[in-house]
From TrEMBL:
Name of this chain's protein: NAD(P)/FAD-dependent oxidoreductase
Gene3D superfamilies in the record: D-Amino Acid Oxidase, subunit A, domain 2 (3.30.9.10), FAD/NAD(P)-binding domain (3.50.50.60)
Entries under SUPFAM superfamilies matching the protein: FAD/NAD(P)-binding domain
The entry's keywords: Oxidoreductase
């Protein structure tokens, strides 16, 4: 019996196309983008808008990777708050980073509006839920820094977070009303549709196996024997990065993000669980995140095992988290289970690399990829056109493989298990 481990609730729009559009043999593109996820498609769309000729090559199908399989939370900001960014990057670069981080959710919702994307969404904010006093103090620090910049944020009391989430066990939290939720597969599919309408050529099932630079012209070879030429190449494969660029895969630790979805909630429970439709992430070491879907299910996700799942028991930790937060859902069936691969960098920041002129690579979404990669795609396109590094919010950095990378995943798996135990003891 097949294991239902790849059955997301997200759906492509009914009019979603298959893509097999390629540049004619011998014709040179301005840019070839390897990877048809949010980062690659956003870059392609904005590059086409700047007058560039663009080819996107996707190894699988559009939306098949983490871009279509994530939790659909659109969260502005980075893992670090404004004061940290200013301290570590200096006043000029730090200020640019803070402003960029503040804009990432806007980039998504403005794109949905301006391009009339058929994407279900709710923009009522994101709640960072605190289950300890330490987490509550961290939320107060974050709130102070963002409120000072005019962001639409506020702290939540224990009573307020209980009313807004319907969940048990939180001491308070932080609400960021700039955020929201989308259907990520619909979003990725619609990005591909409007990019193609703007003149971008997109080809699915074209795995790139070789990149070579000769006299300033990039030659791109695929597994199917396709040969393309381009002035520039953007590698937008993130957690699915392989050996195309030497050492790049060793700069990230790929992790699996597992998710579950309940059956549609009965009306009496739907009225008390996330009644305003916010997204939630909690403060645990191995956090869980959750939201309601457009068809009224509760969707909950978190880190899963490092290896591929082999049975539905691999999602048991999420089911336990769901029952802990919402005991009233003990009789509501878990109908869907799925997972996607995400990438972690050691410093928890996205990395932009340019190992050779005309070759760009971006890795590391850090759990905020929907907004981050949408906004970053526009900046990468601007950089491709102008060559002005000020277009890039993050500095271009050299590729630095993680020491003993082969053992890093073993260490991460052990850390996840230890943190999960500590979280369980804290309740």
């Amino acid at each position: 019996m097949p294991i239902p481990f790849s059955d997301p609730i997200w759906r492509k729009p009914q009019a979603a196309s298959r893509f097999q559009s390629l540049f004619p043999s011998g014709e040179k593109a301005d840019v070839v983008i390897v990877g048809g996820g949010i980062m690659g498609l956003s870059t392609a769309l904005h590059a086409a808008g700047l007058g560039m000729s663009v080819q996107v090559l996707e190894a699988g199908e559009i939306g098949q990777g983490a871009s279509g399989l994530n939790g659909g939370q659109v969260i502005p900001g980075l893992k670090y708050d404004p004061e940290w960014l200013l301290e570590h990057f200096g006043p000029e670069r730090g200020e640019a980073l803070v402003n960029f981080a503040a804009s990432t959710a806007d980039a998504v919702f403005e794109l949905i509006r301006d391009e009339k994307l058929a994407v279900p969404f709710v923009r009522n904010g994101w709640i960072q839920a605190a289950h300890t006093e330490v987490a509550l103090k961290a939320a107060a620090t974050r709130d102070r820094q963002w409120r000072a910049r005019g962001a639409d944020v506020r702290l939540l009391s224990a009573a307020e977070i209980a009313a807004m989430t319907g969940a048990q066990g939180y001491l308070g939290g932080w609400l960021d009303r700039r955020a929201g939720v989308i259907d990520p597969l619909a979003y990725t599919s619609e990005l591909a549709r409007v990019a193609a309408a703007a003149g971008v050529r997109i080809a699915e099932r074209e795995k790139v196996v070789r990149l070579a630079n000769a006299a300033g012209v990039w030659r791109i070879s695929t597994e199917n024997g396709l040969e393309l030429q381009a002035k520039a190449v953007v590698l937008a494969t993130n957690a699915y990065t392989d050996g195309l660029i030497p050492g790049l895969a060793e700069t990230i630790v790929p992790l699996h993000s597992f998710q579950i979805a309940t059956a549609p909630l009965p009306p009496n429970l739907a009225a008390t669980i996330l009644p305003e439709g916010q997204a939630v992430s909690d403060s645990r070491r191995i956090l869980v995140y959750y939201r309601k879907s457009a068809d009224g299910r509760l969707v909950l996700g978190g880190r899963g095992r490092m290896a591929l799942p082999t049975s539905t028991s691999d999602w048991a930790h999420l089911e336990r988290a769901l029952r802990r937060l919402y005991p009233m859902l003990s009789d509501v069936a878990i109908e869907r289970r799925w997972f996607g691969r995400v990438a972690m960098t050691p410093d928890h920041l996205p990395h932009i690399h340019e190992p050779e002129q005309g070759l760009l690579a971006v890795v590391g979404c850090q759990g905020r990829g929907v907004g981050l990669m949408t906004a970053l795609g526009e900046r990468i396109a601007g950089y491709l056109q102008s060559g002005d590094a000020r277009q890039l919010p993050f500095p271009v950095s050299p590729i630095r493989p993680i020491p003993l990378h082969a053992f890093r995943q073993v260490g991460v798996a052990a850390t996840i298990a230890w943190y999960r135990l500590l979280d369980a003891l804290e309740r």
